[in-house]
Amino acid sequence: MMDQKTIDIIKATVPVLEEKGNEITEAFYEHMFSEHPELYNVFNQTHQKEGKQPRALAKLVYQAAAHIDRLEEVLSAVKVVAHKHRSIGIRPDQYPIVGENLLWAIKHVLGDQATDDIMKAWEIAYGEIANVFIQLENQLREEVKENNGWDDYMPFIVDKKVQESDVITSFYLKPANGGALPEYLPGQYLSLKLEIPGETYTHIRQYSLSDAPGKDYFRISVKREDKNAMYPEGVVSHFLHDTIKEGDQILVSAPAGDFTLDTSSNKPLVFISGGVGQTPLMSMLKTVIEKQPERPITWIHAAKNGKVHALNQDVKKAAEKHENLKTFICYNDPTSKDLEMNEFAKVGHMDEMWLSEVIDNRNAVYYFCGPKSFMAAIYKILKHWGINDEDIHYEFFGPQDEMLEEEAVTV
User: Fold this and answer.
1) Is 137 a catalytic residue?
2) Structure pTM?
3) CATH, range 4-146
4) I need a labelling partner for 296 at 20 to 30 A (CA). Which of 194, 202, 215, 245 fits?
């Protein structure tokens, strides 16, 4: 338990963290990886190069410091990270390594400003913060085991591989041991751990489950990302698209994530997605149709055109069977074939005026996912409409306020 003196010291350092948080976390990661290169196998190196990981940690450290005497107020942010930690395999014995290197980075960046009292206070505070994460992650691990899940990673066979569009392919995964799959909540994701030829370290990536629970397979739908020398995000997606074949094995963690569909409510649902962001919403759509067929649903999706629009047949089949499902497709740059078939509702970008026309009942629960600027735009529109926070749900892999601060650009 922290005494008042420690709390006061930590809170007094908040302005410094605001000013030098990114510098501290960048120094932290550089030093930690130099001391423990094996951790390259755990952390997303693309996010490191883009600065996403240091920014995310800086935000979380700042929030924890500002709420050090009431950490329950940042529990929602902690839960998002804890789900990911459980999914990728972070262990309690790794927290001392993080703490040691974070304290080193604070001292390194602040220099003489980091007095003995400050460093001692931060050592105590980090222990408190780490314990919150460890307890929550242990709880998540127990819940997974109770739900027929497994710890760490398990071999799965690629049972089927289906090209959904020019850029998105679905992978149907079944346990290599032939065992039953755990139930999962629609909207959750898997972590895949991949050994890629030519790569020094393993790569771990999260992909949303894109089908309803209760099947004898997991389905993920993966977009082929662009490759470039600086940010090789495409290394993993290209490996899955080009190298992984039906019958191959890959390592998969049990489902995780707290962006999930609430089936206890009967309020109308509105799903809004851009590009591959529809994948967790597809799992939700299929689930609500199975479990709440009378619940009104509005499905709104934006894509460049029909060539890159994946899973459209899934939505069409659902709409044919369920009169309570209304679908609206927006193409920014339709092809001549798209224009000929005329199966979309709007040419150009989604905007507030068009959304207000297709959403006939704003008293609904909203779930949305897509590129960061897209989500910022949707969030801004919903808040302008006066939608309550408890009816707004979105999936964002990163600090949530980073998405909210993004310039809102419709897609």
Assistant:
1) yes
2) 0.91
3) 1.10.490.10
4) 215
